[in-house]
Amino acid sequence: MFPHFLKRKLKIYAAYLKTDFQAQFEYRLDFFLYTIAALVSPIIGLAVWLAASNSGAKLLLDKDQLITYFALVLFVGTLNQTWHAWYVDEDINTGNFSKFLLKPFYLADEYFIREITDKIFKLFFTSVLFIAAIFIFHISFKGVYLDLITLTLFLVSLVLSFGIAFYLESIIGITTFWLHSIDFLKDLESIANQVLTGRLIPLVFFPAGLASFISFTPFRYVVSFPIEILMHKATGSTLLFGFTLQFFWFIAMILAYKYLYNKGVVKFQAYG
Fold first, then answer.
1. CA angle, 70 then 129 then 158, to 5°
2. Does residue 55 sit within a domain?
3. CA angle, corner 195, sides to 240 and 110, nearest 5?
4. Is residue 42 part of a domain?
5. How many domains does the chain have?
6. Largest Cα–Cα separation, the chain
7. How far apart are CA 264 and CA 206, in angstroms?
8. pLDDT tens column, 59-74
9. What domain range is 100 assigned to?
C-alpha cells in the first residue's frame, strides 16, 4: 500500500506526463532535429579517431573497439543529454517561475517529467539509428559484456548518470536567481560535457594525471563510466571506486540543488 501523499504525487505526475506527451507530438520536427543534433558529437568523435587510427596512430583502442565505444556513446549520451537550464532561466527572468510557488510540485518535478517524455521519444529514434549503425558499420561490439551482473551494474550506473546530468543542469538553471544570465555557465558546462564526459575523446586517451583528475569530477560519470562497465574497463577496485564517486556526485548534486533552490526562492521577485 502506497502512502496517500505518494499516491497523490504519482497521480499528478501521470496527468502531467500525459500532457507533455501531447506537447511532444505537437513539435515533432523540433524534436527530431534536436535528436539528430545530439548525435553529432559521437559521429564526429568516431570519424576523428578512426582517421587517426587509419593514419597509423597508436591508440589504446583498436578500430573495432573505437566503433563499439562511440556506438555506445551514441546511445548513452543521447539518453543523458539535458538542456532544460535554458527554460529554467527563462521562467525565472520572465516571472513565470511564480507558477511553481502555487503548483503541487516543484520546478525540478516538472522538468524531470519533461525529460522522461523526451527520453522515451529519443529512445525510439536512437534505437532505430543504433540498429542502423550496427549494419552500416558492421559493429561487432568487441569487448562488450552482456552477462546479467554487468547489465545490472550498467543500468544502475545509467540511472545515476542521468540523475547527475539532470541536477547539474538544474543547478545551472537556478543560478539565474543571482546571475540573471546563465550563458557563460552553460557554455562552460557544454564544453566540459563534450570533452570530459568521453563524448568526443575516450578518457583512456588522456594523460594519466589528467585522466586521474577527471575521475574525481562528475563528468566522467555521465557518459564514460556506464560504458566502461559494459566494456569491462572498470572492474574490481576501479569499479567500486567509480560507483562510490558516482553515488557521491548524485547525492551532492541533489543536495546542492535543494540548497540553492531554497535560497533562490527567497531572492525571487516577479514583476506584474
1. 55
2. yes
3. 75
4. yes
5. 1
6. 64
7. 38
8. 888 888 888 898 889 8
9. 4-267
- The Cα–Cα gap between 128 and 113 comes to 23
Q: Which residues contact 120 (CB under 8 A, 6 or more apart)?
A: none
Q: What is the percentage of the chain residues whose pLDDT exceeds 70?
A: 83
The whole-angstrom separation of Cα 142 and Cα 125 is 24
Q: How confident is the model at residue 241 (pLDDT cuts 50, 70, 90)?
A: very high
Distance CA 91, CA 97 (A): 5
Q: How far apart are CA 153 and CA 157, in angstroms?
A: 6
**Residue 75 CB partners (closer than 8 Å, separation 6+):** 126, 130
Residue 272 domain flag: no
C-alpha cell at 134: 550496427
Threshold 0.90, pTM exceeds? no
Neighbours of 150 (CB within 10 A): 16
